[in-house]
Design a protein that fits this description.
mainly alpha, 2 strands, MetI-like fold, 1% strand
Length: 296
């Protein structure tokens, strides 16, 4: 006795029949769940930045309203008042000088140090590396008093050169460790080939090593720029009017008359733009530099 399952299907019925649904792998569901959680975490961390940008286009009365004002007419009044301020140019110039010169000095000092500690190590290399990173373990508050006294004795208070030296010392240990990790990824065969061709140490550095670690140098420079541009404690205690930087300008928006939230938000957005633009311009080199050695 034949059943319905034994009846052959026509070719048209076979073409129109829906395909059998396969069970979704558990790993795929887990991946989608992790993606949703990652997006949620990213939005949570980005929410304060978005609120800061939104507040910068408000009037002061709208920025301080309770409950918060979500629907308003945007205005550029806060930005124009900050840009028109006569002191803002000196603050920006001091930050650019301190950040740019200190980052350049860090790279000049960190590259040969990282080369010697990675490709030409000595017996006490690990001790030297620990000494470098141990300087970051000391709280900044513990060293501000002797630094203040020394800077006062040599008449270097409220001087941009003092910030340049301090920012260089602050970023140098991190730069040495980062550049060392990039140099360790260079194959030894490349250096042997350069040595066989008769290349000197300087020629090897210029023509072989530096082009290979250029993404790492870009990543290191960007991190140093971020740390130096955002540094507040040294600038607050060692400068007054001549060498004050952008973070000090942000603090100046909080006056005894009150906290102007809209003006502070606009100033914070303008202060963040240079670092954001630098990261956007160097994003390819930054990703390549931070991922060097991640995949074997």
């Amino acid at each position: 006795m034949s059943t319905l399952a034994d009846v052959p299907r026509s070719p048209a019925a076979a073409r129109t029949a829906p395909p059998a649904r396969r069970p979704r792998p558990r790993g795929q569901l887990r991946g989608h769940l992790l993606s949703v959680l990652a997006w949620a975490a990213g939005l949570i961390f980005f929410a304060p930045v978005a609120w800061m940008v939104l507040t910068s286009f408000k009037q002061e009365s709208q920025a301080a309203s309770s409950p918060p004002t979500f629907f308003f007419t945007p205005t550029l009044e806060q930005y124009t008042s900050i840009i028109a301020s006569p002191q803002v140019g000196s603050y920006v110039l001091n930050s650019v000088l301190a950040t740019g010169i200190s980052t350049l000095l860090v790279l000049v000092l960190a590259v040969p140090a990282a080369y010697s500690l990675s490709i030409r190590p000595v017996k006490r290399t690990q001790d030297v590396l620990f000494f470098f990173i141990s300087t970051k373990m000391l709280p900044v508050v513990a060293v501000i008093m002797p630094i203040y006294v020394i800077a006062g004795q040599v008449r270097m208070l409220d001087n941009i050169l003092t910030l340049i030296v301090l920012y260089t010392a602050m970023n140098l240990p991190i730069a040495v460790w980062m550049m060392r990790s990039f140099f360790l990824e260079i194959p030894g065969e490349v250096l042997e080939a350069a040595s066989i061709d008769g290349a000197s140490l300087g020629r090897t550095m210029r023509s072989v090593l530096l082009p290979m670690v250029a993404p790492g140098m870009a990543a290191t420079a960007l991190i140093c720029v971020i740390f130096a541009w955002n540094e507040f404690f040294f600038a607050l205690n060692l400068t007054a009017a001549n060498a004050a930087t952008v973070p000090i300008f942000l603090m100046s928006t909080m006056t005894s008359e009150g906290l102007f939230l809209a003006r502070l938000s606009a100033a914070s957005v303008l202060a963040s733009l240079p670092v954001v633009i630098a990261g956007w311009v160097a994003q390819k080199q930054l990703v390549r530099g931070l991922s060097m050695g991640a995949v074997k």
